[in-house]
Design brief:
By secondary structure, the chain is of the alpha/beta class. It has 2 domains: 300 residues, TIM Barrel (Alpha-Beta Barrel); 92 residues. It contains 19 helices and 8 strands. It has an 8-stranded parallel β-sheet. α1 packs antiparallel against α18 and α18 crosses α19. It is globular. The two termini are 32 Å apart. The structure holds zinc ion. Zinc ion binds next to loops.
Length: 418
């Protein structure tokens, strides 16, 4: 390991994106199979979101799993064993559980399973792993309960983001987003009114205004899992015409959501909160980052944190981040989809971004074993890329080490005002 890679390995981390949700991370029933099912490795077996042409009864990550045995583990470990999602989780488990250092096999899975169950019944397991990963702070996206107070639920080392999907689909008291969240229930649960369209908009403003006091540090736009990301300018009257309809036309649904997304962008600028946006693979016909350019251009005072290097459209995203100076990049997930592409894209990002404040990183995971693997994977990739740039004479060691500290922690602290 080079000096730079060693330096990066010991750096503290501000983790800007996780899906630590109480029903999974606080569950005392987590076993080895659940670590696979409730992780990106699980996505190798089943996509947890439906396409417009599909329906689903239950989120496969949250549904009951079959009995834990070698037959139920094999599809992940052997049949999807080339996927980086699986490799990353195996590496995280292998470092935390010495018995699995050389892999999970038919002969060691039972003992490993016992150790996983026992750790997940220990209340401090989560924080023990976070400390080992040198993660000082976590920003979680608790999509199963978007308004939860992260400090009450997880402790002082957590903040959260508020997913806005349900609100952009909230034209009717019964309408729900792909996570089954309902805007009217969420707002009424906070004592906010949704009787008229005007009250609905006011309630959204009250919600945003109260976020900082509840340790909620950004709005999360994950609409790439519900619809296409073309957000067009829409009048209040056009949106109001959809209000109260049980099944508006596709155009009507889009118009309502377009208006609400603009409303949230305005509120983010007004109350100085950033907006995270999921880009890249999702409902893939509509999730190219360039679709978002008109929204970003309409809201120059809103700070957008664009996610996942928009895989597979990283170049489009980097071009946008050069042109629009209200864009920051959350590198999360890109390294897990393809570390090879990630290294290429990170090289280009270093060269094209206008300044060193722009990049941040997180795990984007459900259980801490996966988070642990992801942070280590990322640190080793960034170390490899920066070291190669130092060797090539692109910038000196001091610059590379400062930049690594910024990507892993300082940029996030500044950006979110933590
Ligand atoms: Zn995520």
């Amino acid at each position: 390991m080079s000096d730079l890679e060693e330096f990066i390995a010991q750096l503290p981390v501000c983790d800007v994106h996780e899906h630590h949700i109480p029903e999974l991370i606080h569950s005392s029933k987590v076993d080895l199979l659940k670590l696979f099912q409730q992780s990106y490795a699980g996505w190798t077996q089943e996509r947890p979101y439906p396409l417009p042409s599909e329906t689903r009864d239950v989120d496969p990550m949250l549904s009951d799993s079959p009995a834990t045995n070698w037959d139920s583990l094999k599809p992940y470990i052997e049949e999807s064993g080339s996927s980086m999602f699986v490799r990353n989780l195996l590496q995280g488990i292998g470092e935390l559980y010495p018995i699995a250092r050389d892999g999970i096999t038919k002969s060691n899975w039972q003992e490993l399973d016992q150790q996983v169950r026992s750790n997940h019944q220990t209340p401090d397991w989560r924080n023990t792993v976070l400390r080992r990963a040198k993660i000082e702070h976590v920003i979680t996206d608790p999509y199963s309960n978007p308004l939860l107070d992260p400090v009450e639920t997880f402790g002082k080392n957590y903040s959260s983001v508020v997913r806005m999907n349900a609100f952009a689909l909230g034209w009717h008291p019964q309408s729900r987003d792909h996570n089954e969240n309902n805007a009217h229930e969420l707002l009424e649960g906070q004592g906010l009114s949704t009787n008229t369209f005007e009250q609905y908009l006011e309630s959204l403003e009250t919600l945003v205004k109260s976020m900082r006091g509840k340790n909620q540090v950004a709005i999360k736009n994950a609409l790439a899992y519900d619809r296409f990301l073309h957000f067009d300018p829409t009048s209040r009257d056009q949106a109001k015409a959809i209000w109260g309809q049980a099944s508006p036309s596709a155009e009507g649904q889009k118009a309502f959501g377009d208006f609400i997304v603009d409303h949230f962008c305005d509120l983010c600028a007004q109350y100085e909160l950033p907006m995270q946006v999921h880009l890249g693979t999702a409902i893939i016909r509509g999730s190219n980052p360039m679709n978002l350019a008109p929204l970003i251009e309409r809201h120059p005072k809103t700070r957008f944190l664009l996610m996942h290097l928009a895989y597979p459209w990283s170049r489009e995203l980097l071009g946008m981040a050069f042109v629009y100076r209200n864009i920051w990049l959350d590198l999360t997930w890109a390294a897990l989809l393809s570390p090879s592409h990630f290294k290429l894209a990170l090289n280009e990002a270093l060269e094209v971004l206008p300044d060193d404040s722009r990049m941040m990183f997180g795990g984007d995971n459900w259980h801490v074993e996966e988070t642990f693997g992801t942070i280590n994977t990322f640190k080793s990739l960034i170390g490899e890329v920066l070291q190669a740039k130092v060797v090539a004479g692109y910038f000196p060691f001091d610059h590379a080490s400062r930049l690594a500290s910024r990507i892993l922690k300082d940029n996030a602290v500044d950006f979110f005002g933590l």
